[in-house]
Design brief:
With 186 residues, the protein is of the alpha+beta class. The protein has helices at residues 3-27, 76-85, 108-145, 151-184, and strands at 42-45, 48-51, 56-62, 65-70, 93-95, 98-102. The N and C termini lie far apart (52 Å). Residues 21-184 form the Ribosome recycling factor domain. InterPro entries: Ribosome_recyc_fac (IPR002661), Ribosome_recyc_fac_dom (IPR023584), RRF_sf (IPR036191).
């Protein structure tokens, strides 16, 4: 393992942390409807928990309503039940073969709860990035101990890893600021 390998794997892992944060932030509900909030809803499909997107078409009917059209007519009841029992606080209504899922406007109190949730997700991502930095620094120390690199090379590499960490923490802060603004916009 070389210094370049350590830097490369560190950057890849930090990128994965950012992608995970983006996915988590996409699940946080804002005042508008978007199909992504139903991504983690599981439906009982012939005894197997299956993602909703794999048994139905999910579309936006208007700014506050999501439309779910099952591919099989007999799945309507199971899908409606799964959405109702999810932790999203949504109340679907069936109209023939289409399930309409209105997203109620968020109260000020609920918006503040969402912001807290966003900040918690961000802190988790920052912790993950810092843990990756720690692992990278331990790898560099091991290279130094094995006499594969000099002390100067180790110090320079640690500085580079710190710059990477700072860059990813700044990106996390930027993502959180955008999501906060989105959540608080009425």
């Amino acid at each position: 393992m070389t210094v370049a390998d350590v830097k490369k794997t560190t950057e890849q892992k930090m990128n994965k942390s950012i992608e995970t944060l983006k996915a988590d932030l996409a699940k946080v509900r804002t005042g508008r409807a978007h199909a992504g909030i139903l991504d983690h809803v599981k439906v009982d499909y012939y005894g197997n928990p299956t993602q909703l997107s794999q048994v139905a078409n999910i579309t936006l009917i208007d700014a506050r309503t999501i439309g779910v059209q099952p591919w099989e007519k007999k799945m309507v009841g199971a899908i409606e039940k799964a959405i109702r029992e999810s932790d999203l606080g949504l109340n679907p209504a069936t109209q023939g073969e289409i399930i309409r899922v209105p997203t109620p406007p968020l109260t000020e109190e609920r918006r503040k709860e969402m912001v807290k949730l966003v900040k918690t997700e961000a802190e988790d991502a920052k912790i993950a990035v810092r843990n990756i930095r720690r692992d990278a620094n331990e790898g560099l120390k091991k290279l130094l101990k094995d006499k594969a690199i000099s002390e100067d090379d180790e110090r320079r590499a640690q500085d580079d890893v710190q710059k990477l960490t700072d860059r990813f923490v700044a990106e996390i802060d930027k993502l959180v600021a955008e999501k906060e603004k989105e959540v608080l916009t009425v």
